[in-house]
Amino acid sequence: MSLSFGLPSEAMTEAEIITLFRESQALLEGHFQLSSGRHSDQYFQCALVLQDPEAASRLGTALARCFKTPREISAVVAPALGGILVAHEVARALHVRSLFTERVNGQMTLRRGFSLRSGSRAVVVEDVITTGLSTLETVRAVEATGASVVALGALVDRSGGSVSSQFTIPLHSLLTMEAKSYLPAECPLCAKRIPIVKPGSRS
């Protein structure tokens, strides 16, 4: 199914975003292992909605509108792999650079010649945020360069808003949903022996 949209003149509503995810089959139900290691009966496969360039542009532009001081932002940074396209589209809308971090020997870092000037200001974005671990790791990688992170963003906040308490930096999300997740030892889906799927980008 082709998902073709023009750039929005106004911010997207949550209903529009949910429709966009459902039409692209990016909102899945079943038994999933999240990148955090927790289990859930719901999964957002953002790659399926972001595969359409116009849909990705629309979401990126909508998220960029959440940042009130775009002229002071010099770069948008995301953790690989899921956040790369989100960062690219947000950066396109803000007319700044798009960078991504990668995990090397267990530590998130900037590679491939990416750099940030000391004192510069950046935003960190994700596709889906649940526990905030990848976001925190990316923030630390940015701050290690001497730059500062002035805002955080995500297409989807799966925590129902509770994850924002993990940060001292404002978090903006296009869609906030409280999706249940469980430690593997406490997962009722495992207890029912429902086969688990690992759809994320982290093996």
Can you walk me through this structure?
By secondary structure, the protein is an alpha/beta fold. The chain has a domain at 53-178: 3-Layer(aba) Sandwich (Rossmann fold), CATH 3.40.50. It is 26% helix and 28% strand. It contains six helices and nine strands; from the N terminus they run αββααβαβββαβββα. It has helices spanning 14-23, 46-50, 53-64, 84-94, 133-143, 188-191; strands at residues 27-33, 39-44, 75-79, 97-104, 107-110, 121-129, 148-157, 171-176, 181-182. The strands form two sheets. It has a six-stranded mixed beta sheet with strand order 5-4-3-6-7-8, with helices on both faces. A three-stranded antiparallel beta sheet has the order 1-2-9. α3 (53-64) packs across α4 (84-94).
Order of strands across the main sheet: 5-4-3-6-7-8
Calculate the mean pLDDT score and round it.
Answer: 88
Examine the coordinates and then state which fold CATH places here, giving the name of the CATH topology of the domain at 53-178: Rossmann fold
The secondary-structure element order is HEEHHEHEEEHEEEH
Sheet having the most strands: 6 strands, mixed
- What sort of overall outline do the alpha carbons produce when their principal axes are compared? globular
Distance separating the two termini? 28 Å
Give the C-level CATH assignment of the domain at 53-178.
Alpha Beta
Short description, anyone?
26% of the residues lie in helices and 28% in strands.
SSE layout:
Layout: H1 14-23, E1 27-33, E2 39-44, H2 46-50, H3 53-64, E3 75-79, H4 84-94, E4 97-104, E5 107-110, E6 121-129, H5 133-143, E7 148-157, E8 171-176, E9 181-182, H6 188-191
